[in-house]
Design goal:
mainly beta, 27-stranded parallel β-sheet, 0% helix, elongated
Length: 327
């Protein structure tokens, strides 16, 4: 069965596919619907080359549906693509735009979101509830939050380029994150902000051009930061505060006011990082922070190589401190 080359205007639902129906939905134009295309039940529909002009939700995938959603041009006022319940669509090579959220994943959904071009005013991609999404090789531009992770979701976020967001990636609650090989450029507040009781790994990401923070870990988060490259962040490249824990290892940091900041009651292990070109501190411990700074290269910083203030009591051992203003 094929549903193709239709023009639908002003409907409650432009195209609805339910139960086991699995047509090819291709080259339709849908305008001003409440929901442009809805795929439910256990459908395996092929949804390709459609245009959905501003609708409240451009596409809704629910039930246990596993459609192939490819090469569509979708825009919406609230949510452009919503994936819920136990759905597991392949969402690939689409143009996704809208005023609200680009792609929202809730319930126990397990979509594959790969190679899309997402431009959204509020959120590029959001994963929440207990979902397990793969978010890979997408381009996300000019969202308030590029990728938002909350609830108990366990996304894999790899190889994306996030440009011009206020927060490139933001994680909270009890999420478990795998953030690997992304490029995050020109974030307004922070490239990566991790809070709540988030656990997981942030590895091999490239961060540049933030006027404020590169990576901030706060709350009770316990996240490992491994092999990231952070440059041209105006204030602090990495900030670990609250009661946050984790390991910071193999990161390369260049420039900014402070390379690695550990404050409040945080206690990370800061091991084997390279910090150069900062204005105030290469590595700074303050508050009642604990943890350790071991085997780091802190070189050619204008201010202090490793600084301790307040009641901070970390272990400082085996660091290479050269050509800094102090220490």
């Amino acid at each position: 069965t094929q549903v193709s080359e239709n023009v639908v205007t002003g409907a409650g639902v432009g195209v609805l596919v339910a139960d086991t129906a699995s047509p090819a939905i291709a080259a339709n134009t849908i305008e001003s619907a409440d929901i442009g295309i809805q795929v439910a039940g256990s459908s395996t529909a092929q949804v390709t080359d459609n245009t959905v002009a501003p609708s409240r939700i451009a596409m809704l995938v629910s039930g246990s549906a596993t459609p192939d959603v490819r090469r569509n041009d979708l825009s919406a006022t609230d949510v452009t693509i919503q994936v819920e319940q136990n759905a597991a669509p392949a969402v690939t090579d689409n143009d996704v735009a809208g005023e609200g959220a680009g792609i929202v994943v809730i319930g126990a959904a397990e979509p594959s979101i790969v190679g899309n071009r997402i431009s959204s005013g509020a959120i590029g991609v959001q994963t929440s509830s207990t979902s397990r999404a793969t978010v890979q090789d997408n381009t996300i531009n000019d969202a308030a939050v590029g990728v938002l992770v909350n609830g108990e979701s366990r996304p894999s976020i790899r190889g994306n380029r996030i440009d011009g967001a206020d927060f490139g990636l933001q994680s909270a609650d009890d999420a478990v994150i795998d953030v690997d090989g992304n490029s995050i450029v020109a974030s307004g507040t922070a490239a990566i902000s991790i809070a709540g009781a988030t656990t997981g790994t942030v590895r091999a990401n490239s961060i540049a051009g933030s006027p404020s923070l590169g990576i901030q870990v706060s709350g009770a988060a316990a996240v490992d930061l491994l092999g990231n490259t952070i440059a041209d962040v105006a204030r602090t490249a990495v900030s670990v505060i609250g009661t946050a824990r984790g390991t910071l290892s193999g990161n390369e940091i260049d420039g900014g006011e402070i390379g690695i900041q550990v404050g409040e009651d945080a206690g990370p292990e800061v091991v084997g990082n390279t910090v150069t070109g900062t204005e105030l501190y290469g590595i700074w411990f303050g508050g009642t922070a604990a943890g350790a700074a071991r085997d780091n290269e802190v070189i050619e910083n204008d201010g202090v190589g490793v600084g301790l203030v307040g009641a901070a009591a970390p272990i400082i051992d085996g660091n290479d401190l050269r050509a800094n203003g102090i220490g």
